[in-house]
Amino acid sequence: MITDQDIETTFGAQLSKIIDPVLRKKIVETWVEACKEGNKKDIRELEKLPFTIATNANGIGLIQHVKAATEGAFALAKIQKENIPEFPDIQMDIVIAGALVNDINKVIVFELNDNGKYIKKDSSTFPGVEVTRKTGLPNSIVKIVEYECNGCKGRPGNLETIFVEHADFITFDSMAYLNTSSIDPKNIV
Fold first, then answer.
1. Residues 116-139 pLDDT 10s
2. Which pTM value belongs to this model?
3. What is the DSSP string of the chain?
4. Fewer CB within 10 A of the end CB, N or C, for the chain?
């Protein structure tokens, strides 16, 4: 079973940027709960999970992707705050926490099939959104996960979502660009 300690060790550098200790704890709890619901039993299994199955991930795992997207979202928001004094107030804890759980749905819906290939479980709901609500994350973070699960359609629920999604798409778009294979839209989560 994946524990709080596993998640704290895995995302320690990113979690340490969250100032609010209650929010930091809830992010860890959300990861542990998602691993439980997705039947991910140990951290090695989680480390093997691809960040996408819609295109060739070129060996980039979900953990690597989450770390990069979190650091990227943080950097993008920080640069805006530092260079544009008129820029609206950005809640950095929400940016970091939102980026850490942005792709939490994949922990639950990606599974290995009998051929050793990752597939998306059939789901008419968004279990990633449900787990963020279950663990009591603030609505501002739930909105980030909802936007991601909804295919980033419509207006983002808050300003922080924009930074998270742009950082998130950098990895995905780069892999799609590098791959000659087409993207399978039914596998985008």
1. 899 888 766 689 899 999 999 999
2. 0.90
3. ---HHHHHHHTHHHHTT---HHHHHHHHHHHHHHHHHTT--SHHHHHHSBS-SSS--TT-BHHHHHHHHHHHHHHHHHHHHHH-TTSPP--HHHHHHHHHHTTHHHHHHEEE-TTS-EEEPP-SS-HHHHHHHHTT--HHHHHHHHHHHTTT-SS-SSHHHHHHHHHHHHHHHHHHHH-SSPP-GGG--
4. N
